[in-house]
Each structure stands twice: as structure tokens, then as C-alpha cells.
């Protein structure tokens, strides 16, 4: 069974979503199904079919979250250090074509949010940066063509 790396915050967020689905969403959809059943003929009951579809989604998501949490490898970023880029690092890069500066934190797949500067460990830019140090230049295959970034800082905040 393959481990899934994630930060403590990412693990807590998945755990909170799982608890919400089990304690709020699941009982609500069960109530909606029983309410829709009371309206009679189920073959033409749109409320019933919508509630059953929602229930299917919720049960699937619960199973997915339970699997991910069971395989989670929680990495305490506060205990990491060094000059090499690895999981949990906050990396400052400069685009060599545009001289634009960007800051990315390398996190687990479920935690990634580019708007917040968090990129997945499996993203092309993160894979290119892993193992590199400050001053190294990385080539990233992007949809618009190859991009070059210089790593200017590696932090562990």
C-alpha cells in the first residue's frame, strides 16, 4: 500500500471533512431520501433520485477520505531543514524569461491550492525542483512550452 505524504494541516483538513460528511451530510441525505420516499411513486420522483445521487457521492467521498487517511504519511514540516528542496519546503523562484518572482510550498496532492501558493508534490514544477538547491536552475515542461526557473531561496516555515 503506497503512502500518501501530507502535512499535519492537510491531514487535519481531510479529517475535518470526513467528520463533517459522517455527522452532518450523511444523516441529512438519509432524511431527504425518506422524505422523498413518502411522496409515493419512486420511478418519477426527482427528489428521490437527486437524494440517492447525493448519497452515492457522499459515501464515495467518505470511502476515499478513509483510504487516504489510512495511508497518510504525516510529515512535520517544522522538523525539516536543509538547503535541498523536498516535501514541505517553501521555495522562492524567479522565472528566467519574465523575472517574475513566485513562492511555492510543496505539499500533498489534496492540499494543493495554487492561489495560496501551495503546489502538489506530483506537479511538474515540484518534481523538477525536488533535490535542487538555492542557485540551481530548473526546466519545467509547461503547456505553453518549456520554462526555466532559478531557485533563489529554500525555507522551512
Quick rundown:
Keywords: DNA-binding, Elongation factor, Protein biosynthesis, Transcription, Transcription regulation. The chain is α/β, with parallel strands linked by helices and 157 residues long.
Q: Roughly how much helix do the residues carry, as a percent range?
A: 25-40%
Total DSSP E strands: 7
Radius of gyration, CA atoms, in whole angstroms: 22 Å
Oligomer: single chain
Arithmetic mean pLDDT: 91
Shape: elongated
* Terminus-to-terminus distance: 30 Å
| CATH superfamily heading of the largest domain | Transcription elongation factor, GreA/GreB, C-terminal domain
Total count of helical runs of at least 4 residues: 3
CATH architecture of the largest domain: Roll
Count of the separate structural domains: 2
What does this structure look like?
This is Transcription elongation factor GreA. By secondary structure, the protein is α/β, with parallel strands linked by helices. It is 39% helix and 26% strand. It has helices spanning 8-37, 46-70, 124-129, and strands at residues 4-7, 72-75, 90-95, 101-107, 118-120, 137-142, 145-155. A five-stranded mixed β-sheet has the order 5-4-3-7-6. Strands 1-2 form a two-stranded parallel sheet. A hairpin with a 5-residue loop joins β3 and β4 (101-107). α1 runs antiparallel to α2 (46-70). It is elongated.
Write the layout of secondary structure elements.
Elements: E1 4-7, H1 8-37, H2 46-70, E2 72-75, E3 90-95, E4 101-107, E5 118-120, H3 124-129, E6 137-142, E7 145-155
Parallel strand pairs: 1-2, 4-5
Antiparallel strand pairs: 3-4, 3-7, 6-7
